[in-house]
Amino acid sequence: MAATNRDVVLKIDGLNKNFDGVRVLRDVGFSLRKGMVLGVVGENGAGKSTLLNVLGGVYQRTSGEIELFGEKYRPREPMDATRAGIAFIHQELNLFTNLTVAENIFVDEGIRGRMFLPPKLLDRKAKTILDALAIDLDPAARVEDLTMGMRQMVEIAKAVSKDAKIIFFDEPTTSLSTSEKETLFKLIRDFAAKGISMIYISHALDDVFMLCDEVLVIRDGETVGGQVRSGAITKDEAINRMVGRKIGQIYPYVEKTVGEVLLDVKGIVRSGVLDGVSIAVRSGEIVGLFGLMGAGRTELARAIYGVDPFDSGRIEFKGRAIADPDPMLWVREKVAFITENRRDEGLLLPKTVVDNISLVNLPHMRKRLAVLDRAGQSAAAAETVSKLRIKTGDANRQIVRNLSGGNQQKVVIGKWLLIRPDLFILDEPTRGVDVGSKFDIYTYINALAASGTGVLFISSEMEELVGVCDRIAVMCGGRIAGELERAQFSSEALLKLALEK
Amino acid sequence: MSAAREERPQALSRLDRMERLSEAFYRYGLYIVLLALVVLFYALNSNFLSANNAVNLLLQTSSTGIAAAGLVFVMLTGGIDISISAVMFITAVISTVLTDMGLGLIGAIAVSIACGAVIGAVNGFFIAKLKMTPIIVTLAVMYSVRGLAIGFIGVKTLFFTNAVGAYLVKTRILGYIPLIVVILAVVMALCQILLSRTLLGKQMYAIGNNRSGAQKMGIAVEKRIFSAYVLCGALAGLAGLVSGAQVGQVSPAFAVGQEFIIISAAVLGGVSLFGGKGKAFPGAFLGVLIIMCIENGLVMARTNMYAYTIVRGCVIFVAVMLDSFHNKGETR
Amino acid sequence: MRKLLSWFLVCAVCVCLFAGAAAGAEKIAIGVAMDNLDDPFWMGVKKGIDAAVKELGDKVEINIQVCLGDANVQHKQIEDMVTAGADAIACIYVDSETIRQSVELCNEKNIPFVYMDRTLESDDEITVSWGFATDNYALTVAGWEYMADYARKNGIKWKVLELVGSLTDQNVLFRTEGFEKVMADNPGIIERIQSVPTEWNLEKALAGCTNALQASPDINCIFMHSDYLLAPTIQALEAAGRWVEIGKPGHVAVMPFSGAALSIQAMKEKKVEMCFGMDTFGAGYEGVIAAYNFAAGIDDPKYKAFVNDPGFVITQENFAQTAPRAYGWE
Amino acid sequence: MKDLRDYDFLKHVKGFASAQSAIVFFIVYLIVAALLVPKFANAENLVNIVVQSSELILLACGMTFVFLNGGIDFSQIAVIALGSVIGAQIMVSGLPPAVGVPLGVLAMLCLGLAVGAVNGLAVTLLKMPSFVATMATQLVFSGAALTITRSKTIPRLPRAFGEIARGSLFGVQYPIIIALAVFAVLAFLLNRTIYGKYITSIGTNHKTAKISGLPVRLTIFSLFLISGLCAAFASIIMTARLRGGVPSLGKDMLMDVVAAVVIGGTSVAGGEGNIHGSLIGAVLVLMLNNSLNLLGVSWYNIMLCKGLLVLIISLLALWQRKRA
Fold first, then answer.
1. Per-residue pLDDT for D5 more than 60?
2. Which residues of chain D are within 8 Å of residue C103 when distances are taken between CB atoms?
3. Domain A254-334+422-501 carries which CATH code?
4. Which of B310, B266, B268, B260 is nearest to B68 (CA)?
């Protein structure tokens, strides 16, 4: 189903993007022809989503040229992209649960030239769009009552209602059932036939090869081997390009004596998210938890730490059962947890470095009674700043909001290190962090493990886990797909387990 | 693997059924409560259900109903406006003074709506543009407007018993429907149409549901919130005119504390304090009816005269508790 | 904390120093503490005060404060006036019990304290210099006796709806007691059907009145504690089609209290049988003059005994002579 | 010689940064009023103002704690009214003053805690927005005050109780001593203890605080207890001053309290603010009332000034925060 016409719809060359000094995209170039489906694959954090966000006007590019239908294209905000005919189906959908399907489709711009939008008119208009796409959805149904798959169909219908000529899909199939996936693929083939071009990001390689005309592999923000016809590349070769060997990034590995089981989690179930997960972490051991987007790693960590509820399952810590886990309880048990979302759940942005670092260990920073040991706080903060090599001004006055991403993450780690944790759960600790800070973070983790602390290291970057961990559990679809000992480590093996469908 | 996928949608639907059950109770609960109240008070005093008591009830709900309809817009976007009682006061004052000077009814209605809209715009400016906290802004505006209005007339009590006031209260359309009830019906209809049939209304629901999502999608969030406060002010202005004419006398303590009654009526009517949920008609209207039934019923049942504030406080507490349970607010 | 307090004291002291002594005041400073001004009745009293002030001319420096019915605010206002060097205090107090602390304060600084419109007896703890007030109890009894005779003459029984003002107001309580006494004296003739609380809130008055007329259509007399509540009552009666001249079917006898313009107007239109009249002008005028005399040390026999003005009852018969005494008379 | 830049005299007191704006307003207004308002700037009047501001200081301190979590407490007024009534009831119920007065005072404090507890539970467990929950409790408990006394003042409380408002120690009146003592304790709690850090951290970001193991629910619950307790202390002083249980006590103080806290620099968004500013804000509000009264400005214009003042100062705070 090769694209018949030759005219290029979207041309990109030399595109760069960096965040806080970290180069996320390095002169990316490719072209998208009319009616063509371009598959973009790569590890998590390789820069796939950033690429789409730049094209979709969510982020501004640092440098490089983008040509859309032959003219220069510089989107300032998502609305510019929509007006230019580009539609963006995000991984977390952008819908309003209190409105109906039809209302969601027309809520941002309504119907041209119509002041009144009676429900009957909206439903009729929406029905025509849905029928054109052979989507059997009741336009009057409230989005609240729809499953993930149906909601995705609404986003797509919304894109088509703006007569988008180019549609970006960012990990669309993570929480779809097989039948819902089939309808999506049929839809994409119809769009292609109608001359709509699409960029399809997914880590489900089988889907990509089956669906896309051409495939582009991205690793560390660089395209590897350029656009290739999907027939001309095997799955293993694609994985190889995706994985490759990272030059210059060596991962410190330290021999550790592994002690008895610290954390023992059995059969955690949370309907729709976790299907009976069991995992154990021993003292002095770094257990990696790998998985792709939507595999349920973050949900597992949050369930264990008591931030989110779960339906059933047993958690034991140092042999004692923990009935209903709660952060306050874990802090008393000296268990630390770094969340994936650093800005909203890890830091007090408007407060100073000292306030942030001494946040968790506050109960122990006191003189007599509850009097704050201010000097102790500053001393502990200063020690952490120097030990973790955090680049910051005067810790008492420096506001955390103004620190770089890497330094902010170090502050979060520092805050937990103060309680000298016996168990440390880290969720994507190195995401969006410069290479130097990444290395520092690995050394802290190793130092911790060497001193007998158990570490549960959650990441979606294989090299990192392979380099640092003693054991890696791989999650897929809310379940442990398998565990690899250090001897059996290989990116290919990990990816295979993660991709298992 | 795919088996796991298959069985997940069923799991969701079990959750949905429980959710839908509470949703249904929540939506029809209003009618049940209203019915229960009517039956209770009918038992206590037989002519509670007499025809002109019903009209009298509608009359009493009109000014609160008009203001509650306006408040729905603001509450949909997740905000609140407690300056509405001061707006009612200042428009009652202005329309009394102007009608004494010869302004007609239509003029009075226009002036009241315009004056309310201006105050709404002030609220909107501080809350939408400068993103300040609605409760504090509208509290400050409430005191400023009431002070301004009393300054305007000097510390006197005005009588709104001139021709326009009397006309507004006395005229009956088609023989028995009071003009004020017609105004209430028109306002309720317009608000509900605006909410359910226009883009502005839809976007207000959207903003209340997911403000950052609306922002990302390109909806003019600031403008919509600003217009919500203008609408709320305008309708509070109209409510002030109606209430002033009904009571006949506008003293400096006019409509003090009315904002809490209107807020609780809206919340009782299913308008959520956390935004994104609620209708003007039947929602807010039913809420007002319930509150008026309670007040009216209390008088009928000759209950102890101090119990009013206690009952009103309990009604508000229960209404908001249900709302918080249902819509899970953040502890603020 | 230490730093803050030191700053605080430094600037307080420096301001006092350079501000120097307040201008020497030969004039006599009179502080007038009023409850509220939001009602024609209070405006009637103010007319009296303004007349007195005009009469005393530049011999007197007046400072009128209103406390919106908040006892604590009134105490502070009197404290402020005393601190600012008032020579006499004339006061319409909010709360007969809490005002005693302010009187004690004035007694300490031997500043004469004069009450207006609301009685306050001296006793071992406080000494009140003088006061002018209406004897609400006597006035209510007189008015209701007139109504009782009226009922006997026309052979009707009064089924009364009592619109209660705010129960923190001493005068209002006397009115209820006066009414209850006459009701007790004329068992068959006067019967209270319902008493509706208004807390001086007009919406409540309107709703209460309307609902009461619904609940008991047999009501044929409305006794209200102030004609501040007359307008909503008229609205309610009009809505029920019962705001008609005396003698017409469905007529309800309305008994407004204190004699505002609306009541006088209604009597002119023969829609109201009678009205309790209070001498508000006297209260204001005499109060300020007495305060001035005590401050200036003038010994005027007129202001020896406390005045407990019996007020007057305006009826359709004596309308021509007594109505002009009402403050609502234009 | 220490470099002048180091000599930042506010540095020592941590929660002090934004009290600077309050102090500036205070001094500017003091001087303006001293010049323009006759009879304002004399020692006796200023002392009178400070003593009269004791109850507002207490209420403002209590409200500051609730503001720090981005909430608001409307029910302080009900605590004042109901506290006054209950305390008075106990004191006049035949018990000898030596027993009646302390018992009455204790009852008032307990009532403050009880109302605070109800608000705290409503906000933390029932997840109700604080402004509506405290609005409802305000209506319920002030209604209760009117019901108990059938809105009649309970008169002639024992002289000993009256002394709380009139007596003085080394020339300093008791009310201001009580106010400053409570202020000192609360300032110490907020700026010098771990509990204070909990409050500001939770106010800044609920999620981060929760995940860092801070006792979020308990702390927020305690804020309403403190607000209720402060209102109880204020009620004691006001009731003692009037020597009567007044069911409508303090009914118009809400705007003064909010004005005092906002002038004091406590932002309404939560997590930012200080108690020193509220103290200064309270005295400033009293100065405003006193000076405008002396000028003969009528009460409704004062009401207008306070409303506008809150708007303007919130604007300035917003602008300052944007610039910082």
1. no
2. none
3. 3.40.50.300
4. B266
